[in-house]
Design goal:
alpha+beta, two-stranded antiparallel sheet, 6 strands, 47% helix, elongated
Length: 151
C-alpha cells in the first residue's frame, strides 16, 4: 500500500470517528420527553404559589424569557389582572400533553365553584434540565348538552 493510500485510509478512519463522536454528543444532549406528571407538577407548584400570594416562588417557575420580559411586580400585576382563575379557582384538570424536543404544550382546565370553566394552553421550555412555563394562552370552550366540554 502506498503512503498516500495509507494516509487517505487513516484520514477516513479519523473522520468516521469524529462524526460518531459528534452524533453521540448530540444524542446525549437531547432532552427526553417529560412524563406528563412532570409538567403537572410545574403547573401545580406555580398555582399553589399563586394561591398563597407568593409571587416570587411562582415567578421562579417561569422561563428566563418571561423573567426578562416582566419584572416580578409586572408579573404579579399581569397574573392578578389577566389570569384571576390561576389564583382563585378551586379545581384544576389537565388535558392533552404534546412534547417536541425541549418544548411542550399542556392543556389545563380551571373550574370555578359555580361550575364555570376556562381552558388555557400552557407552553413549556427546558432550561438547565428543568421544565419552565414559557407562556399561558386562553382557549375557547364550547359546551354541548350531550357531551360536555369541548375545546
Amino acid at each position: 500500500m502506498t503512503r498516500i493510500a495509507k494516509s487517505f485510509l487513516l484520514l477516513c478512519v479519523f473522520s468516521l470517528w469524529a462524526a460518531a463522536l459528534i452524533v453521540t454528543h448530540q444524542l446525549a444532549r437531547e432532552t427526553p420527553a417529560p412524563a406528563p406528571r412532570e409538567l403537572y407538577s410545574v403547573v401545580g407548584n406555580q398555582l399553589s404559589a399563586f394561591r398563597a400570594a407568593d409571587f416570587s416562588r411562582a415567578y421562579r417557575n417561569a422561563s428566563s424569557r418571561v423573567q426578562q420580559k416582566f419584572s416580578l411586580s409586572q408579573f404579579e400585576r399581569m397574573i392578578r389582572h389577566n389570569f384571576v382563575e390561576l389564583t382563585e379557582t378551586p379545581r384544576v384538570e389537565f388535558g392533552f400533553v404534546q412534547t417536541e424536543g425541549e418544548s411542550a404544550i399542556l392543556q389545563v382546565f380551571f373550574f370555578a365553584g359555580s361550575g364555570a370553566a376556562r381552558a388555557f394552553l400552557y407552553t413549556f421550555v427546558v432550561e438547565d434540565g428543568v421544565w419552565k412555563i414559557e407562556g399561558i394562552e386562553p382557549m375557547p370552550i364550547l359546551r354541548s348538552r350531550q357531551t360536555g366540554l369541548h375545546v
